[in-house]
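Pasting as-is:
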Amino acid sequence: MNLALWIATGLLAAVSLTGGTTKMFVPKQKLAALRGGEWTRQASVGFIRTIGVLELLAAVGLILPAVLDIAPFMVALTAACWVLLMLGAAIIHVRLNQFTLVMVNVGYLALASFIAWGRFILEPLTGS
């Protein structure tokens, strides 16, 4: 189970790093032109960058606490926060009638839920 949790965590961290980097460094106009980026048309640049920062922090929070053995409970907490982020993303995509992207959000939500459940309940990471 530990291996499955690490694989899921690595995948979610990669998704988070990619999404965060895109939201931080791609101009709003280019984001709005991308499929799935239509939501940025009504969002401020500050809001988009804030989501980007949160996603970058999530990438860090999913991996570093366990690897460095410093506050490893943060992995499960970060995954739980990712669930909330994906709920918000799914709501936005429902409002835009982008049901394929809602399913992507639900997939990420399920992955994050698995990690949170696994690290809170099944195989908690413990600090030494």
